[in-house]
Automatic annotation (TrEMBL):
Protein name: Peptidase S8
An annotated Gene Ontology molecular function: serine-type endopeptidase activity
Source organism per UniProt: Actinoallomurus iriomotensis
Domain Peptidase S53 positions: 77-397
Keyword Signal: yes
Signal peptide: 1-27
Claim: Hydrolase is one of the keywords in the record: yes
Amino acid sequence: MRRRVTGTILGGLVLALVPFLSSAANATPQAAPPVSHSFHHSCATARAGVANCDALVRNDVATSETALRAALAAPSGLSPANLQSAYKLPSSSAGSGQTVAIVDAYNAPTAEADLGVYRSQYGLPACTTANGCFKKVDQNGGTSYPKTDGGWAQEISLDLDMVSAVCPNCKIVLVEATSASFANLGTAENTAARLANVISNSYGGSDASDSSYGSYYNHPGKAITVSSGDSGYGVEYPASSHYVTAVGGTSLKSASNSRGWTETAWSGAGSGCSSYNTALSGQSGLTGCSRRAVADVSAVADPATGVAVYDSTAYQGQSGWMVFGGTSVAAPVIAGVYGLAANAASIDNNYPYTHSSSLFDVTSGSNGSCSTTKWCHAGTGWDGPTGLGTPNGTGAF
């Protein structure tokens, strides 16, 4: 599970590899039943001064693109159409002129090709370097890419695919940090702010102070999303930064109600009260925390109701179509919604607090035990695991 490492960065990613479904490409999958299969981390063991992404990978199943097509089957996991339906998004008509940056560590050499497979599978328009939709840079904005890391390559594919799913008309910039240190990821963040309207970050470390790292995330006129973590109740940085939108996680299931979906708080979503950073003005009187509380909003993150992702950079013998969970799903989903809304230049991260009527309030579920109930239990209005709720269109962004 998630390890906390002071001064280092961990990715907010959980991955389950499950069999593909023999169904239409946009069919709504049912939640997977509980399983007792073994898992392994998708990144190497941390060493001094270095942190990992936090992917958990099922050891027993992987589905190659060749096998999927031979079976005339659709990938398992939620599709773009599922996400667009669940969150009532204008994905086919909005997002043009917006650029979403993805900040991750290390190099994914197959990122553009894998993105092409994902978008082709679901009938999304091509997003390539050649047509000007996709751009890949190193942390300084050049092309001296860092070394390849298979675990972080999975994280990168997840992030690219989720932005594509939600905002297929947005341009995408992938910024690859040299390593997973705060300094290198922060340098990449500053580069992303020069190149994009919206920035997504699917990583986190121990709660820290904006006085140490806040300059990396203080970019007025840019919407910056950060995953809240995958170890349940507890606060991580940079989700706890005063300058970002902290994104919690839910379990998302199809339902026979007017919405067509139900959501509960995901047990793994990070939440709580920062020990260091100033509360958002919009949080006054809502959170029971005198400092910055996490999260602000949320989206699907439960790997049991996870999303389809394609990645061909083999890692520990696994590649192809996979099902991912973790708040690494939720952060780029919300980044894509910011792209659809196209308001980043004129709003800040307090905006959802004055537009919460445009969110689905998540009122059940928990991510652990805590001294102040709303920090770890979903309920009416703001709560830690799900924040103010999940997108109901783009009005809260």
